[in-house]
Amino acid sequence: MAKRKLTQTEMPVADHAFYGLVWAGTVLTERVDRALSKAHDLPVSWFEVILWLASSPDPVPASVLGNSTMLSRSQVSRVVDALQSRGLVVRTPSARDARSVEVSLTPEGHQLFKEADATRRACLAPVFTDLLDEEDLEALSTVWKKLKAGKGGQDGP
């Protein structure tokens, strides 16, 4: 029996859109993970935490990292442990809440972020940003904001 794929016209548009998002997320994440791991020994989950830290001018409460990333709180804790053991982040007691800690990048962490972010952007350019114009990117951003506003799970970037 010959195998064939369904075409878009045979699949309901909502299903096609959903699986398109899943496909894009999976393929792009795997591509970035391979590039970051090869060039910087930095899994994409570690990069996500570093990205959040690099985007904040102040130390970030560990609980906020758990609520902001696509990782569970226990995963964030393990990633921060690994980053700390590499000298990329430091934990400090919170000035606002004695029961919590805040996390910030070290100078080495900032440097690695700059290098890894350049790798990530170069990796994505031929399969994402170079293929989409500003209108496409704005449309994707609008879709993402609508989905996030619906709180269909964890918050994202």
UniProtKB/TrEMBL annotation:
SMART domains: HTH_MARR (SM00347). InterPro entries: HTH_MarR-typ, MarR/SlyA-like, WH-like_DNA-bd_sf, WH_DNA-bd_sf. It comes from the Bacteria. It comes from Streptomyces auratus AGR0001. This is MarR family transcriptional regulator. Residues 1-149 form the HTH marR-type domain. GO terms for molecular function: DNA-binding transcription factor activity. GO terms for biological process: response to stress.
